[in-house]
Amino acid sequence: MNRLADATSPYLLQHADNPVDWWPWGAEAFAEAKRRDVPVLISVGYAACHWCHVMAHESFENEQVGALVNDDFVAIKVDREERPDVDAVYMTATQAMTGQGGWPMTVFATPDGTPFFCGTYFPKANFVRLLESVATAWRDQREAVLRQGAAVVEAIGGAQAVGGPTAPLTAELLDSAADQLSGEYDATNGGFGGAPKFPPHMNLLFLLRHHERTGSPRSLEIARHTAEAMARGGIHDQLAGGFARYSVDAHWTVPHFEKMLYDNALLLRFYAELWRLTGDRMARRVARDTARFLADELHRPGEGFASALDADTEGVEGLTYAWTPAQLVEALGEEDGRWAADLFEVTEAGTFEHGTSVLRLARDVDDADPEIRARWRDVVGRLLVARDTRPQPARDDKVVAAWNGLAITAIAEFLRVAALYASPEDEDANLMEGVTIVVDGAMRDAVEHLAAVHIVDGRLRRASRDKVVGEPAGVLEDYGCVAEAFCAMHQLTGEGRWLELAGGLLDVALARFAAPGGGFYDTADDAEQLVARPADPTDNATPSGRSAIVAALVAYAALTGESRYREAAEAALATVAPIVGRHARFTGYAATVGEALLSGPYEIAVATDDAVGDPLVAAAVRHAPPGAVVVAGRPDQPGVPLLADRPLVDGRPTAYVCRGFVCQRPVTSVDELVAQLG
Asked: Where in this chain does the record put each Spermatogenesis-associated protein 20-like TRX domain (predicted)?
């Protein structure tokens, strides 16, 4: 009997009709394995995973394979996005055993959850042989299997240990991290390393903040070049906006087509920050279109943002997105079709599969002549209409707390930059205004949904779907990303309740997740006990739980003036500092927060009756140093500590600038404020 029909995870629901007798993760499955005295097969994946779909079709939908699994194992299906704690433990085991990891992840374990054999994708024939071999080994070589499991548990326990060396995250370490990234930078194609190439959003955010602090032209150049290379590449959807998960090549041409919420949230934040710092038209366009993608494609009205769009459409990668020259002519006519093929590098040979090409920009359009820009916008609109008639990729509709937190923070920052640069003279001012209205509504839906649905009895839950929250508890990254989002909402709206909610989550994190020596575990002290308690300090596809909670602690301390939260942030960051010094590519968010702490961060309060249009507010946003918090509104509003006892001076709007809880004199002119922030 397959037990996944009532799951909230779309990934689990995809397997609800398999002939495999799947169990969801839980004590009942392990009790059944113990009762039957059989090993456990743990299969971990996620809804948008291409090779998960392949293995499902080849093996888990096959009656023969289902019979083998059901006879000799208890099979457990896990959505890694819903249970990142389970995924983290068994991924560490997989990497320890094989030297690599990925999804689908295939783990064989004892009835107490101890892994003894791990792998990833297996073709059907190999998987059948593996099932038979593991079943035989369990029956005939039990002691050897148990010894292997004990060795794996010892290895993953050491890999997840806390309490290692600590050091202050100094300017020298951050400068060294920037130098490391410079040394690994692909000067031809942008980004770091070779194929496959992932958008390095957190490293780029760090480099922008490093440039702000030091004036380093190298850090800015790496960020700008990579931003443009990604924006022109096939990894960026040239029609609807948004970015795919990664490029299969080194030059951003052919993507792996899944689109993840977390990538697009972090990239929106990066492009918005690049726009704020430079006024760059390309950064403006990409930030706008990425925000629009979040609102149009991932927003669930009355809820939050969905997790992902699938890599496949009807089992075929790229079916929605790839074009031939003939298809362009069919959609646009002969003349515009040829022009579009040249602009988007769509060739007869193709850049993808079966003579098709992924659209990429061959030339700059943002600074082209007005006639060229107008024609390009017209072509994009008509192609998008044509593409919308094609089959579309499925969407993973679950709402993940941490990823929604990332999206809320990014949109809040985007909206402040959009207000800063708003101009009715812009040729696409109406489009920008429409996008800001739509994404503002989507952001508010998401943050209200997190507050009302995901916080249960003061604790955070990981995921929800159709406005129903799941049972899995929030992990550290959820607390950090959501608390940071609440801090961002407090700054954007001036409403005290968001700051209060952030403080509640941070207090839970300090009480339940803290580890000896200043670090943090990824799971709470009263969470389900796994074979190891994960505590990964490195930033990968998303910020680590530790980096996320530090970012929230820093923002909250700056907004409230409560130093104990800053002290906790500094202690936690000190546990990551030795890694920043050695592995900068895997500590991008930690280094980003480190730049904020090194800067102060600045606390900027603007006492004004016009929190949106006051020139002092615009100057504060435009010139804010790395990680600064900015709050504007009427003095002495309840729940807004930065505006307490900060009156208007002589009846005029007044800015108050503090750094590390030490304040400068209040100023009433833009020039004076800019001088204090310089």
From this structure: 1-156
